[in-house]
Every structure is written in C-alpha cells, then in structure tokens.
Amino acid sequence: MPFDVEAVRKDFPILAREVHGVPLVYLDSANTSQKPQVVLDTLTDFYANHNANVARAVHTLGSEATNAFEAARGKLAAFVNAPDRNEIVFTKNSSEALNLVAYALSNAATTIGAERFRIGPGDEIVVTEMEHHSNLVPWQLLCQRTGATFRWLRIGDTGPDGGRLVEDEIDTVITERTRVVAFVHQSNALGTINPVSRLVARARAVGALTVVDASQSAPHLPLDVQALGADFVAFTGHKMYGPTGVGVLWGRYDLLAGLPPFLGGGEMIETVDMTGTTFAAPPHRFEAGTPMIAQAVGLGAAVDYLSALGMENVAAHEHALLEYALPRLAEVEGLRIIGPATAVDRGATISFTLAGVHPHDVAQLLDEGGIAVRAGHHCARPVCVRYGIPATTRASFGVYTTTEEIDALVAGVRRVGEVFR
Amino acid sequence: MPFDVEAVRKDFPILAREVHGVPLVYLDSANTSQKPQVVLDTLTDFYANHNANVARAVHTLGSEATNAFEAARGKLAAFVNAPDRNEIVFTKNSSEALNLVAYALSNAATTIGAERFRIGPGDEIVVTEMEHHSNLVPWQLLCQRTGATFRWLRIGDTGPDGGRLVEDEIDTVITERTRVVAFVHQSNALGTINPVSRLVARARAVGALTVVDASQSAPHLPLDVQALGADFVAFTGHKMYGPTGVGVLWGRYDLLAGLPPFLGGGEMIETVDMTGTTFAAPPHRFEAGTPMIAQAVGLGAAVDYLSALGMENVAAHEHALLEYALPRLAEVEGLRIIGPATAVDRGATISFTLAGVHPHDVAQLLDEGGIAVRAGHHCARPVCVRYGIPATTRASFGVYTTTEEIDALVAGVRRVGEVFR
Amino acid sequence: MSVPMDSIYQQIILDHYKNPHHHGLIEEFDAEVHHVNPTCGDEVTLRVRLADGAIADLGWDGDGCSISQASTSVMADLVVGKPVAEAMALQERFLELMQSQGNAELTEGDEDVLEDAVAFEGVSKYPARVKCALLGWMAMKSAVVESDRQEETA
Amino acid sequence: MSVPMDSIYQQIILDHYKNPHHHGLIEEFDAEVHHVNPTCGDEVTLRVRLADGAIADLGWDGDGCSISQASTSVMADLVVGKPVAEAMALQERFLELMQSQGNAELTEGDEDVLEDAVAFEGVSKYPARVKCALLGWMAMKSAVVESDRQEETA
Ligand SMILES: Cc1ncc(COP(=O)(O)O)c(C=O)c1O
Ligand SMILES: Cc1ncc(COP(=O)(O)O)c(C=O)c1O
After folding, report:
1. How far is CA B421 from the centre of its chain?
2. In a domain, D141, yes or no
3. Catalytic: which of A372, A379, A389, A411?
4. Which chains, if any, share at least 3 CB pairs under 8 A with chain D?
5. How far is it, in rounded angstroms, from Cα B40 to Cα B417?
6. A389: buried, middle or exposed (CB in 10 Å: 19+, 13-18, 0-12)?
7. Which of A25, A353, C38, D144 has the fewest CB atoms below 10 angstroms from its CB?
C-alpha cells in the first residue's frame, strides 16, 4: 500500500487550522507532534466511559481502566519488539525515563543487593556532545551525586556532511572505567543517526551499561530494542503522535529487577511497614503513584495508528521528504545546513542558519507566513557551541508533511532573507 | 446559590453509564474522581487547535500553548491562594511532588550553596502513621539515602471517634533534631482531618520544614496555602476532577529558589555546558522535559469548574452527605467504621469493615449492584496494621454524590451481609 | 437473597467458602509453603505429601476473601490423588483461564478437567481479583516443586 | 518584498535593527552591565552615565535577534536625557505592555510617552520573544540601579 499523505492529513484535525490568515504548515514535529483524531477519541472515550484508578480497584470501571492501561503496555512492548511487556515502564516523558535510570543507579549506593550497580569516584559516565539536555544533565547530576567523572564523545567535522561523532574516539573515551554510555539515537539538533551497534558493542566490551535516547527515532523509524542491543531505551509519547504527559523507559528485565526504586509511593511497593518497605517487581516498582492512565491508553492508540501506517512506510515517506528538502534548502542564498548535508544515516530534521538573520527572526517571520519551525539551541546547547553559533532554525517533518510544505518553507526562507537584508 | 447536585451530575458524562445492567453509583472519588465535560472539551480543544510544545517555540501555536499552560499555572496559584504563581510546580502526580522535595533535599548534600538543606545522620524526618504510601516511602528512602532517622506520630484510639493522631506526642516526637515534618491533611484511609496549624507551629518552633499532603483535601475544601502556613503542599489533578498525569507542588518561593534541582533535562536549565550547567529559577527548575501540557491546561479547567461551584459549597455539600451517611452505615449489622464516627474534622470518605466478610468481597458484590467502592489498604497499610485488620471497604463522595446513592450503598452492604452469612 | 445471575459469586464458590475442603494442615508432609497476596492480605499456608509421582495428600489453612479461600478449596479437591504432571497441567490451564480477561472460550474438555474451577471464570474480568483466585494454585505449585527439590537433594 | 500587515516586524523595528541608535559603548560612564537571554543567546552590554538625577548618556553594544537589538535602540532614544524616575516609569510601562499577552489596550497617552516602543506591542503575544524585547530595558534598569548604588557607597 503506497503511503497516502493526503489521507493521513485528514486524520489530524489541527492541520485544518489557519494562522495569521493562512493555512498552517507545521514543520515542528521534532519539538512535538500533532495528534490524530483517534488519539483524541481514545482519551475522550476513556474519561467519559471507563475512567477509574488502576490496579487498586475491584469494581467494573477499575477493571476496565486497568485492562486498558495494561493493554497499552502490551501495545508499546510490541511496538518496540520488547521480549516482555513487563519491561515497559510508563514515565511522564523521556526526561523522567532517563533520570529514572540515573537515580536508580545512585540509589544503589545505599541499597543492599544492588552492589553491582554502584558508581563512585574513578568510574566514568560517557555521553556525546550532541545530547539533548535531557540525556546530558541527568548524567552530570549523577556524577555530582556519586563523584564519578563525566566524559563525552565529540562531534567531529562541522562542515557539510559533518555533524557526526568522532568514531576514532569511541575506543579511547569508552574504557574499562566506563560504567554507563548514554547516547541519542537520532539527534534532535542535527538529524544525525548515530552508529548504535558500534557504540553498544564497545560499551558491552568494557562492561558498561548502555542507555539509548530514542525520543527522536521512535516516531520515525521501526524501533526494535532487541536489534539495538542496548540495556535501556527511552522515548516520549508527545513526539510520536500521542498525548503529552507520558513517556516510556524500556529496560532489560533482569536489570530492572536488580535496580533499586526511584520514586517511592503507592503501587510501587510490595509491603509497607513503618519500619521498612519492600518493593514490587518491575514495571510497577518504577511507577509510583497514580500513573498517567489516560495518557498511556492514548499512546497505545497512537502506536496502533503508526503500526497501521507501517513504520517502514513512515520511514520511507520521511526519507523521501528529506531527500527533497536538503538540496532545495541548500540552494537558498546564505543558508547553511547544520548537520549532515546528505540523507545518509540522517532523519528528517533540518537545522540551518541564514547569514545575517538571527534564527529567532527567521522562525518568527516564517510563522507570519503560517510556517511553524523552531529556533534556538533545541535543548542541545553544546551542539551550538561546537558549531560556534548561538542558535539555529529547525524544520522537522512527520507523517503528515508534504513536498508542497517544503516548497513553502524554501520560499519562506528566501523571503526572510529579503526582508532583513 | 444552593448547590444543585442534579445539575452537577449532568456535567459528568460517565454518570450516565450502567454497569451490570444497573446505573453506576460511583463512590470511589478518593481513589480518582470523574471528569466533567468541560475538562474533556478543554483537552480536545487544546490538542485539536493549539497543540505545540511550550516555552521553546516562537510560532503561533507554540505561543498559544505556552500561554494556555502558564495561564493554568495562574489558575492553580489562585485556587490555593499562592502569593506567587511561580510557586506552582507542575508534576505528574502527588507522588512525584512529594518525591521532588525528598530528592531535592538529598541532592543538597553535593550542591554548593544548598548547605542549609543538608540532612544526615542524627537528623530526623517525622511523618504520621496515617500517611498514604506516597508520603511515607519517599521519606523512608530519603532516610536510606542520607542516614537520617525515620520517626512517626502514632494513631491513638482506634475506637469510635478515634482514628486521630496522639496529640500529646507532637511535642515529644517533633524535636530539635527534626528536619522535616510530612503529614497528610485529610487521610484517604480514615477521613480524618489533621490539626495542621498545631503541627506546623511545632515544626516551625523547632526549625523543621513542613510538607503537607493535600491530595485528599484539595478537591473537597477551600485550600489556602498561606493559611495552612506550611512550606510545601502537594496535590494531584485526577482526584480534583482534572486529567490523570498531572499534579502540583506548591512551595514557598524562597525555599524553591534555594533548593537544588531534582530531574535534569530540557527547560530546567539556565545554560548547559559539557563542563557544567546552571539552573533556571523556580518553577521551571523543577519541570524537566516537556511538561504535561494538555493535562495542566485540563486541570486549569477543572479548578475553574470547582471555583464556579464554589469550594465552600462543595465542602458544605459533602459535609451534609457525610452526616447523612455515618449514622445510616453505623446501623448496618456487623459494620464497623474505621476512623472517626462523627462528622467533626472529617472528610466524606468512610472506611468500614463488615463482620465475617472480606472487604474485597464486599466491594465486589456491591459492584455487581452497580456501586463502585474501593477495598484494600488504600495505600496506607500502616493504618490497617494499627487497626489489626487486613483491609477495609471504603466509600468516598464527591461533588456529584447524592443521598440516594448513599441509600443504595447502605442497602447494598446489608445485602452483602445476607449473601455471606 | 441471592446474587445477580452474572455474579462472580457462583453458588459453588460461596459453598466452598463456607465449607472449605481439605481445610486444615496435614501432619505428614513433604513441603509446606506460605503465600501472601500483598495487595489484599490474603494468605494461605499449604502442605503437600507426594507419593509415586502423585499428590498423595494436601491440607491448607488460610485467611482472606471468598475467592482466594474457595479457589484453594476447589483446587485441593481437584489435585489430591492426581499425578503431579496432571496437577501441573491443571494449574497451567487454570492460570490461562484467569489471564483471559474475561475472553476465555471454555470447551467441554475444560469443564471435564477443571470441574468446579470453571466457576471462577468470571473472576478473570477483574485483574485485581485474579491473584486471589490464583493464590492457592500458586502455593500448590510451589509446594510440589519444593517437595521435588527436597527429594533430589535428599 | 514586505512583511504582512499584522507583522511584529513593523518597519520601525527593522529600521532600528538595521541602524541602531546610541550603539557603541560610551567612554565615560557610572556603570556597565552585561545581560544575556539564556534561551536564545541574545546579549547586550550597556553603559550609563547619570547627572543631576537624569540619564545623561547611554551607549550599548549587542548581539542577537532584531527584536532585542531594535528594542534596545528604541529604549536608548527614549531614556537618554530623561530624569531617572521618568525612565523607570517608562520601563515599568513597557514591561506591563510586554506582559499583556497581546491584550494591552494602548491609550493615546501610552503612544505619547512610549513613542516608537509601542511598535513592540505585537511581541507580547509571543512569550518566547518577550524576553528579547525586554533585554535592553532590563539592562538599563540594572545599570541605573548600579550607578545609584555606587554613588551611595562612594
Ligand atoms: C492522601 C494521599 N496522598 C497521596 C496520594 C498519591 O496521589 P497520586 O497517586 O496521584 O500520586 C493519594 C492518592 O492516591 C492520597 O490519597
Ligand atoms: C533527543 C531528545 N531527547 C530527549 C528529549 C526530551 O523529551 P521530553 O521533553 O518529552 O522529556 C527530546 C525532546 O524534547 C529530544 O529531542
């Protein structure tokens, strides 16, 4: 079945909107995606017909809500090819998922039975220079808590078709002292897709845990946690056509089972006593309090929607858009693409600068023409530092993006150049 | 304006539902509340017309989303009479809000400038025996991380009109060694409303921080954080007619401003560098990653709804229901109320046991008659231990509860007794 | 008064609850286990004696809701005297039934082998109660495994 | 090509951006401040000299988006030569305008005192840009406060 983008667009109510009197051209999906009607309907149906707290209730609504919530867990497990549905932990977003791992590790310091996870002075945590702050700050804070050393893989060449990790340094930066290697699958700032198997292989060789930030890949390509081979994978609902307020941490069951808890509270316990508490098995151990029930159910609907489109088709559609956009943008006077200039190992997120115009002005003036793009450091400030620029403008595509929208973007950027020069 | 419960009921679509072929009688609002149509409409409108990520975006949708999200913060601040809207931190639920405080405190150990918050061996953390696990386990874990001592105020008399803290012990348990006093405003297991000013005064006298778990009071009575006088107050959206997946931590601005961050990630930073990071001012410092945008906006709609009803009216309505229910339930053969038997300093949540019938069987059989109540330890197991019982059945009321529903409950409980005897 | 037609409280469950079978701990046994359902506090202590690859005897004591107690009683009736392999197959089938979320299709064959245990089908719709219905069965399985292990290491 | 009618990029803003006023650091000054807008990297360095309770001179240098640079230029035009109290009142009024989320009702009085600064009204609809428009104003305020403090402690 060919990918019918016009049919897809009809599923997204917001795409009928106008801004500043012109039709919306939404090119900010890497920031957050829009939601198909089926996700909105699922939320409404949940609240209007089945709403109750989960796990705890013996009544009919409670059972319906629990079944819906746990069914969503099953859907997410299938979506990322997890071997066991109990490996899916629901969090509020990717950021919480990544912090969860970092805190569980530092909590090992005072947890009997978790000695193998302890991290301290002399140990090293490795990230990359292209991390989103959400996969960078948690590890800086972990180092602060534990006395471990924070290290990183650098971005090499910043010229055209640069924007990739210095592969030679993988073996020198990841060493026997490394305990965790945390890296982004697809960079939200550069579009770069990182060499996961290369990084995982090296981490495994030195006995380090691997944490993959798949926030930008889960919505755009078939994600198979078993094929990635990593230990933990984090992603976030709102970028994959699901509701805000829900994310996922996938982890190998034996690791989750060995890690101490992170947040304490209802539902994550086995038995509570004033003098001591024991904890539930994963995933519940890591889901303290009332979970984001409706949101998880809504995310389940989103992955059903994506699976019906077929993630292979989604990836092919977006790759075609990328191949269409890159050369056309590169032709615009004064435009410099920040990140790989070709479509190889690259997602459909394009950052650029325009000579003489501040990225915020580019984005703002595009908005006045109905085109929504993002400007800033995209929560990956070290990338801007590496390129020696304060910010970029970024256009990012999704299942509903068309080549006409890319034409509008290219024309819009040209116009911006004219206004400011 | 008299409180018109029939009009209120029409606002809640789920109340039109039948279970087991009979109309739903939902008496489980302390577990989670149902949602008025206006909250569902607000969510749908947000996603269908204004959805974008907040703070980061310069485009129109992003500005609309940011304005809606920050307006919700303002609504929440007004709802609890916070002096400054920047004192409202959005979390995923109460549990996260409480853990946030506990982790920020232990993070002080390695944060320069946060010395005054440091906790260690010799320091004491005081909770009560009637805490929800979400205000108990985080403090046990804090003690585990820091070496501080975990202490608690006991529940005294367990007879009729017992179920209250031993007031005499307040001065002996809260001492100069106490650093934090964390307690529930209204107990979810007993209905008891605790003497906040008494506890806060003692804590203040010894220089301890106070953390009030208002999860069960925010939906039911006028909550005024300035009048409470505490340092931190936590509550949760799904119990106050809002969406799942959103909660609130209110904290005094100067304390929030002095505390180290909890979760690291996007939006909570000032500037990020590979070699070190500085953090944003509150509330953003404590809101890492993409927040629960739609849910906060939905919670804003819920508090608008409550404010339109008037929290004084809500409290009066529920108090009348409580006065109606207590004597009628007490008359049922073999029924024992767990918690205060009179309506003084007590919320409209009634736990009970029925001689010879397990609470789960009570709840299940009531469900077969359409009546949804909860059975279990209500995530407050130490309460059951204190009363020497494995569990209770609990009926809890909300804005939409009627005296007819209480009649149905009383009749239902009688029937249960007959079936099992 | 009677319960609704579609009640999970089938008369058979209430009967077993009020008059549990194989109730009481047996004196001679190969293994004893104590299982708790932490969410509701249901408990069961269970002893088994094996002989010639079969469950020669089983006795139990417990505390908890009618579902947990009745299910243990029904289980005891079913497995006492049965070869271990058969008891384990029954346990498997019952577990499947309980995990069906109300969608199990019971065959006549099931009714033949599970007998009174099919009365618990309705419980599978209530995730919070499934653990209650499984408590005794899980305890039985552990006790049998435990007996085997003791035999091997003896 | 021109911008849309309702554009926040009023011609006046573009003009100030392309030809900023009071641009360049003055040699004689009472205080210098450096302000940064961390979310977008806008920067401004600003020097003031006070005399007889008025802003005698002001010069600045900066880097950033057109809104931040043009707003600083407009601000400089407005406050140079004004009594400090008046400059502070203007700052207050501009801050209010920026925090209005697009709902400000500009009076004629506002237009009289804020002059070119009313052109920034459209910015108030964009929370992410409000900080840009305020950058120079906030820097001016700090610099004045700083000068006062130095005077007092001198
Ligand atoms: C008193 C009390 N505190 C805390 C909580 C935890 O709230 P949440 O589950 O939304 O985190 C609850 C409800 O579950 C509660 O009743
Ligand atoms: C690569 C990457 N990692 C992590 C995140 C954080 O996701 P969230 O904001 O949903 O926590 C994002 C998006 O903001 C991202 O693009």
Report:
1. 37
2. yes
3. A379
4. A, B
5. 39
6. middle
7. C38
Are B82 and B250 spatial neighbours (Cβ–Cβ below 8 Å)? yes
Give catalytic status of residue B379 as yes or no.
yes
CA B400, B406, B408, B411: dihedral to nearest 10 degrees? 170
Q: Which of A376, A417, A406 is nearest to A25 (CA)?
A: A406
* Contact between B130 and B187 (Cβ < 8 Å): yes
CATH fold of B43-307: Aspartate Aminotransferase; domain 2 (3.40.640)
In this prediction, the answer to ipTM > 0.90 reads: yes
Compute how many other C-beta atoms are within 10 angstroms of the C-beta atom of residue B394: 26
Going residue by residue through chain B, which has 421 residues, state the pLDDT in tens, using 9 for 90 and above.
579 999 999 999 999 999 999 999 999 999 999 999 999 999 999 999 999 999 777 899 999 999 999 999 999 999 999 999 999 999 999 999 999 999 999 999 999 999 999 999 999 999 999 999 999 999 999 999 999 999 999 999 999 989 999 999 999 999 999 999 999 999 999 999 999 999 999 999 999 999 999 999 999 999 999 999 999 999 999 999 999 999 999 999 999 999 999 999 998 998 899 999 999 999 999 999 999 999 999 999 999 999 999 999 999 999 999 999 999 999 999 999 999 999 999 999 999 999 999 999 999 999 999 999 999 989 999 999 999 998 999 999 999 999 999 999 999 999 999 999 8
Q: Which amino acid is at D126?
A: Y
Domain boundaries, given as residue ranges, for chain A: 5-30+310-420, 43-307
In a domain, D153, yes or no: no
Beta carbons of C131 and C39 less than 8 angstroms apart: yes
Number of domains chain D contains: 1
Range of the domain at D101: 5-148
Q: Which residues of C82-111 are buried (b: 16+ CB within 10 A; e: fewer)?
A: eebebbbebbebbbebbeebeebeeeeebe
Indicate the residue type of A262: F
CA C128 to CA B43: how far, in whole Å?
30
A192 C-alpha to ligand 2 centroid (Å): 15
Does C101 sit within 8 Å of A67, measured CB to CB?
yes
Question: A5-30+310-420: which CATH topology?
Answer: Aspartate Aminotransferase, domain 1 (3.90.1150)
Q: Does D125 touch chain B (CB under 8 A)?
A: yes
